[in-house]
Each structure stands twice: as structure tokens, then as C-alpha cells.
Amino acid sequence: MKLDGVELRWVEMPLRSPFRTSFGTQTVRQLLLLRAVADEGEGWGECVAMSEPVYSSEYQEGCADVLRRYLVPALTGEVDGISVVPRLKKYYGHRMAKAALEMAVLDAELRARGVSFGRELGATRDRVPCGVSVGIMNSIPELLDAVGGYLGEGYVRIKLKIEPGWDVEPVRAVRERFGDEVLLQVDANTAYALADARHLARLDPFDLLLIEQPLDEEELLAHAELAKVVQTPICLDESITSASSAADAIRLGACQIVNIKPGRVGGYLEARRIHDVCAANNIAAWCGGMLETGIGRAANVALAALPGCTLPGDTSASDRYYKLDVTEPFVLDDGHLTVPAGPGLGVTPLPEALEEVTVKTEWIPLA
Predict the structure, then answer these.
(1) Is 360 annotated as catalytic?
(2) Domains in the chain, please, with CATH?
(3) What are the residue boundaries of the Mandelate racemase/muconate lactonizing enzyme C-terminal domain, all occurrences included (predicted)?
């Protein structure tokens, strides 16, 4: 197909409650949505970069700039989803921007072909179990109330954000209140150093599913050393940027589990390759989340339905974060979300909802 152009749309999504991690607190999620308009229809993409470069080196305005100046103009002539990344290869980095553009083009192509995102990726399930990510709280009673609420809603796995000073005691409190049967894991977002290994080993008695990204993203060897000290499986998130980096991390013994985030790795097709690497090495994988709208959530649910995604992902229902989503909301059903079966992403933005959260738009022509 041939692209006429790509619309960039800045949106601001107020969160139901503040979401705190080791790198900051969010009260509003700022996102960049893409609408690829082609001769055969249109498709949507979502750029998960944050407004500031605190999770990764990418940030919203930087993504908009590289899309405007380099990435979108590179897609002249005939294009399809699988050709996007090779066409953009000469531009170094900018994986989140590339992922959003690939997603929009792939959505447009699949809608035209009448094929769902899940089918294209190789999904084997029509519904997926859902976990929920619980941010750092002001107090343990507040944390216990939040966890109790999510369990009451039916979430099948709880992930606690941790940082130095908020780790062992919150985990202990959750275990004591809700018991050993709750699937529980923690996420450090690179907040620790290898010198903290003995301290992190204090989490071992709590039978956690995993410790996610405890050390800096570039410290693969340090993660391998940490894995010799702690019994809890190490899961890598920020360190995994491609199928190649996943293979290296597995070979080094730096992780026993991988969190796959399509935006972080450059797109859903690369995410599928990481899934395949994990499956070939008997490494558990799961789909992470970046507080996506219903657009990104639809694609994530499709990824989470692949056979090698054996752990519940951060594919929470829409109302976990937002009172109003830009698509029909994803609703939890007995701890699961349904994988959209319609063409492409299987969801379409609701015009009124989209307009309500839109800050500005920009059209990048290709014709």
C-alpha cells in the first residue's frame, strides 16, 4: 500500500490516582498517537515514550521530532508492516518512535487484509490472564488497601513497585495479609546496585515470581552475578532492547524471565522475535505495559496471547488507570481480557473521547 501521510496526535490522559515508581510519580499520562492514512485505509499506532527521558533516553517531543524529520519521510512508495523497520534501519535508535510507526502501518495493512493483530503475531488464545502493577504508596496500610481492591476485582497477579527503603516490609505485609497463594512479583526499575545483593536476597523467603530489573539496564554481567546470590528469578525489562540482546542476556545467565515491551524493543514484530528466542531457550516471558490507551492495550493483549507468554502480563483493564479511554474500554472478566478478533487492532478510537484528551495534532504529508 502507499501512505498519504501520518497524523501525530498529542493526548493527555488523567490517571485515576497517582502512579509512583522509583523514577517518579505520574498523575497524567502524556502519549503520542499516530494515524497512518493510506490508499487502502488507515491504521493507528501508539508511542509509549514518556514526556521526559526518565524511563529511557526517548521522550515524547524527541519522538515527534524524529518521526517528523526522518522516519515518516522514509516511508515513501509502496510499504507494508514488515518493511517498516528495514526502511528505518539507517536511523540509529529511537525504538519507541519506530515501534509506533510500525504499529500504525501494520494496523492499516491488517485492516485492509481483514486479518487480526493476534492472528498475524501468532496468538493461540482468545483471552489472557491479567496482572496489575501497584505503585509505591505513602504507607503500608494504603498499599494493603490497594492490593485488596485489585484482588477483589479479580486480577490474578500483583506486581509491587519497589525502591530502596520500600521493598522488604511492603512485600512482607502483602504476604502476611493475603497469603502465599497470591501470585506476587516486584519491579525495581533499575533502582538498586550489585552491592545491594544481600539486601535483595531478603526477598527470597516470600516466594516471589520474580524480581524485575533490579540493576541498571546496561549491567548484564552484574545481573548474572546477582542471580548467583538471590534465589528469586531475575526478570529483565529495560535491558532487553532486541532479540539479540535477549539471547545475550539468557546466555550470560543474567535472567530467567523476560518482560517484553514492544515500544522498548522497536515494535511488535521484534517483540515476537524476542518471544521466539525465549521459547527456544525455555525462558518464561510476559507482556509488559506502559500505561497505554485502548489502542496500545489491544496490541499488547494480542502479544500476551502468544504461546510463550506463560506469565500474566501488565495488561490491566482500562479502568485500572483511566476513567475515560479513547476506545471502548477493556473490561476484566474473571481476571482475563479478551483478545480483539476484528481486523487490525480490532479497536477504533471513539471520536468524542479522543477529542476530549487531544492537546494538538500535526499532519505529515507523504503524497
Answers:
(1) no
(2) 3-114+347-365 (3.30.390.10), 119-338 (3.20.20.120)
(3) 140-233
